[in-house]
Inverse folding.
């Protein structure tokens, strides 16, 4: 199904969708563009990729998993029962204006949290109730490399509706069955006459990305360089361990769990974790198996470009959004590190 919406009708369409779903849309917050619950007075900004991805739609920065309370038996004070209430989310969300890399990023979560040995019920509840209306990119920014990792500026993977800018508005294509349900509004016109414009937009965008680098050797080469800490120290020399790269990454899915309690009742809370922090692997004994930033950066890059692909049919766990490059305060570029690993020659070989 293909539809067309005039640019000046988009806000009204969002308000209509908002009668059935919560809407998350990007808008300006200071110098940043961030996804927030849609507010018609504040509008939205889909002119460029949002500073932070809409990761929180299915994986909130912090969420309560269970609420618990201790119930004391006053007749038998030594007996304390524990009452536990699971807090599975049940609202339905539409993420509007995410980019193809953002929607595709969730397919990397799916392999771990939905299709693995254990299903994450919290992620599942949100994922099944979250719809993505994704905006195709006109051209890549200098930090974008989605075409290196098997994707592209109008890749519909992970989206429910793909929006393509055309003269006077947007061509809307349903990508999934549930995407069709979002396109039933009477505000939308038939999109047939705009198909050719949309196809040209997509072809021009693909062209703008330039030639993709071949990363097929990355998994094996990263393993080859695994024990060469001189190599990893050189790659991580500038890193400040600030964690911006992990927090802003649409495919980083690690979390930590803490209990907060006043002694009678409390909550078990899950929050994003950050593998670039020295506390990520710090053990209670004081031993840390990843004691330096070189060890930590090796793990971050190795996980995305080697260990994850080895476990998941060769799929690279990076969608090429470039946010880690854009947001790194000291200019660490994950593309350079992967290419350096691909060009890596073990010392013994290099010496002769
Ligand atoms: S590693 Fe960097 S480029 Fe890749 S998905 Fe994460 S933030 Fe985007
Ligand atoms: S954003 Fe840059 S400086 Fe900060 S942890 Fe990541 S690589 Fe290091």
């Amino acid at each position: 199904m293909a539809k067309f919406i005039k640019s000046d009708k988009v806000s009204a369409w969002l308000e209509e969708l908002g009668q059935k779903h919560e809407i998350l849309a990007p808008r300006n917050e200071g110098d940043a563009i961030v996804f927030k619950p849609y507010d018609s007075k504040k509008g939205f900004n889909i002119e460029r990729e949002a500073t932070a991805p809409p990761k929180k739609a299915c994986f909130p920065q912090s969420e309560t998993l269970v609420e618990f309370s201790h119930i004391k038996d006053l007749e038998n004070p030594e007996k304390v029962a524990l009452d536990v209430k699971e807090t599975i989310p049940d609202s339905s969300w539409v993420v509007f204006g995410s980019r193809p890399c953002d929607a595709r990023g969730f397919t990397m979560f799916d392999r771990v949290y939905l299709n693995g040995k254990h299903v994450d019920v919290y992620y599942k509840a949100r994922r099944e109730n979250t719809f993505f209306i994704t905006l195709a990119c006109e051209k890549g920014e200098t930090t974008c490399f989605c075409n290196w990792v098997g994707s592209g500026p109008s890749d519909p993977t992970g989206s429910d509706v793909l929006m393509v800018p055309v003269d006077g508005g947007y061509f809307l294509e349903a990508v999934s069955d549930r995407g069709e349900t979002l396109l039933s509004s009477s505000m939308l016109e038939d999109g047939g006459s705009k198909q050719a414009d949309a196809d040209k937009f997509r072809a021009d965008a693909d062209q703008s990305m330039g030639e993709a680098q071949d990363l097929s050797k990355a998994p094996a080469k990263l393993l080859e360089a695994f024990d060469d800490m001189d190599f990893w120290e050189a790659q991580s020399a500038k890193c400040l361990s600030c964690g911006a790269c992990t927090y802003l990454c649409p495919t980083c899915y690690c979390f930590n769990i803490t209990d907060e309690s006043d002694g009678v009742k409390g909550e078990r809370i899950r929050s994003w974790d950050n593998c670039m922090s020295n506390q990520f692997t710090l053990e209670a004994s004081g031993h840390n198996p990843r004691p330096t930033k070189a060890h930590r950066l090796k793990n971050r890059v190795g996980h995305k470009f080697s260990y994850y692909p080895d476990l998941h049919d060769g799929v690279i766990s990076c969608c090429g959004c470039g946010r880690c490059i854009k947001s790194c305060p000291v200019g660490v570029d994950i593309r350079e590190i992967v290419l350096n690993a691909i060009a890596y020659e073990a010392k013994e070989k290099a010496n002769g």
Summary: The two ends are 61 Å apart (CA to CA). The pocket of iron/sulfur cluster (ligand 1) is lined by residues 248-251, 304, 318-324, 334 (CB under 6 Å).
